[in-house]
Amino acid sequence: MMLTEGVLRIDLRGAGRSTGRWMMLRMLLVVLLVVIGVTSVSAGSSEEEAQSAYAKGDYARALTLTRPFAEQGHAWAQNGLGWMYQQGQGVPKDDQKAVTWYRKAAEQGYAHAQVNLGWMHKNGVGVAQDFMEAVLWYRKAATQGHVLGQVNLGLMYLQGTDVTPEAKGEAVKLFGQACEGGYSDGCLHLGIMYETGDGVPQDDKEVVRYYRQACEGGHMAGCSGLADMYADGRGVKKDLFEATDLYRKACDGGLALGCYNIGMAHFRGVGTRPDEGEALKYFGKGCDLRDASNCQAYGKLRKGKLTVFPSSK
Q1: pLDDT of 160
Q2: How far is CA 202 from each of CA 171, 243, 244, 299, rounded to the nearest angstrom?
């Protein structure tokens, strides 16, 4: 159980642009992620039972199994108990107690807890916001090879409005380590850095490489970014059919941006057959994900008023 931060690629869909280029910008989105059954120590039967109970939503039993081990000083249990206080699962929500238990585990060198404690300090949850403390704990986890620590530390290097080239270089290094460790967020961030030319020379072939790795690792924003590269013919031969397949994959994986782009592809007949019914279906899926642009396109298409790029207003 741990807290992490991730990046979603958000498309400014070229409203009013005659070229119809699907532009992309980066924005950071803090997300909470529960990781079940992933530990850096050998899991004993009690830990496995606690994880199993948690996964089933039986928080009362998970708490009963976890608390005694936490009080005995087992880091996995301390981290788990901190998470339950953070989420209010089996106990009343209490961010300060969450910080206390995360700290106990983090001070024992438990990397998951170090990531969680860093997240709490960065976001000022249960403790005063302190970026230096966040960096300290992220770095401890990253040094142990923890991919979430590496990505979150990399993001910290990119904080602020006046980021130095040296800081960008450190971020690239950390994202690369996480990507090599099999963490798709690291691959996605590295692709973004190569696309923007931040910390590395701009290189479309490297963008394609890392977006592809992110996509193959299950990161739908990587699939959407790779689709853009195929749609524009950047770093790869232009292939609108491949682009639409990737947008569809991103949509089916829960990325609203993918739903918008595959919906628009069906509406325009680009890379796929023109089919307003299919367009309506995908805009509807995106709207179900609470994306305003998809909802707007869905409503306009139903009224027969959809243009190539619906107004963002």
Answers
A1: 78
A2: 15, 22, 25, 39
